Amino acid sequence: MSAVPLIPTGRLAPSPTGAQHVGNARTYLTAWLSARSRGGAVRLRIEDIDSPRVKLGAAEQAAEDLRWLGLDWDGDVVVQTARLPLYEAALGQLQLRELVYPCTCTRTDVAAAASAPHAGHEGPAYPGTCAHRSVADALQLRADARPFAWRFRVSESPPFTDQFAGEVRLDLAQLGGDFVVWKSAGTPAYQLAVVVDDAEMHITEVVRGDDLIPSTPRQLSLYQALGLTPPIFAHIPLVVGEDGRRLAKRHGDTRLAALRESGVKPESLLGLLAWSCGWVEKPEPVSAGELLPLFRLNAIPPRAFVLTASLLRQIGYQL
Ligand SMILES: [Zn+2]
Asked: How close is the Cα of 149 to the center of ligand 1, in Å?
């Protein structure tokens, strides 16, 4: 992989597991403005490799949603499922250095063996049941037709300076321990695919939701292990419903497609989002281009944005 270019390069990385909603739009807008406001490039990547729930046509839908918002991108659309050999090569490098080992544990095994409960949606920390194995043990497991995943040996927890959230220092051993980089189904896990992609696509800045902060030290460990240069990160607060929970179906239909079909103008939504980010004083219609000179990452309030039915009504949408 060649050197990182000097121009800032951001990315939009929709996952086609579900429709894009207002919360996704706020993150995409921020990522797009961050790169474009400095004359940078934006790439589009469809993250379709790590999910059993990819819906047919969802990638096209995601691109359509972005176009509707007025967000553009440079170059070809990268689709993860078309890049398996790249991820395999990265796994091979980790194997050569014994930085991964085959793990035969099921989810239930991990839950049962974990001594202490750990907070978060990621479940209990992996107790290291298979850490005694070496890469060569995979041969016997294959011969025995035992399914296994590849786990990365966590040795340190790289701290990082988040462009939005500041200094972040998390303990990966506590957070989840050795993590899966390759699934027993034969596909790369999210953490590995994202690192390989961002490096190969010369992404210099990653702007994403702050629910992904715990992923970042893992990804930084992989950058280190693979000898790749990491991008800078900005994790911004999510959009939540009136109950304070992350925006989801229970809050009603906030899909961009639903807004579009009901006649909401993209400029009206962009105005609402720009206002929520502190770039404009009132939620009035504005285009993505008009926001370029107004963008300031640190104007975004450091707490989740509460999307209410009343705010949606103001832009002409009945929740
Ligand atoms: Zn295991």
From this structure: 8
What are the structure tokens assigned to 56, written together? 């047919």
- List the structure tokens of 188: 């790369």
Query: Cα(154)–Cα(222) distance, rounded to whole angstroms?
Result: 10
Per the CB < 8 A criterion, the answer to whether 276 and 306 are in contact is no
Nearest one of 164, 170, 236, 158 to 195, comparing CA atoms: 158
Q: Are 246 and 240 in contact (CB under 8 A)?
A: yes
Q: How far is the CA of 102 from the centre of ligand 1 (A)?
A: 7
- Geometric angle at alpha carbon 33, from 308 and 31, rounded to 5°: 75
Question: Tens of pLDDT along 176-208?
Answer: 999 999 999 999 999 999 999 999 999 999 999
Give 222 Cα–ligand 1 centroid separation in angstroms: 19
On whether the CB atoms of residues 289 and 238 are closer than 8 A, the answer is: no
Q: Provide mean pLDDT across the span 257-283.
A: 97
Looking at 179-307, list the stretches that DSSP marks H as alpha helix, in order from N- to C-terminal side.
Answer: 190-200, 215-226, 256-261, 266-276, 288-291
Considering the entire predicted model, what is its pTM? 0.93
* Residue 125 pLDDT level (bands cut at 50, 70, 90): confident
Among positive and negative, which fits the CA dihedral 168, 174, 175, 176? positive
Distance between Cα 151 and ligand 1 center (Å): 8
Q: Which residues hold their Cβ within 5 A of ligand 1, which is an ion? A: 103, 105, 129-130
CA of residue 105 to ligand 1 center, whole Å: 4
As a whole number, the mean pLDDT across the chain is: 92
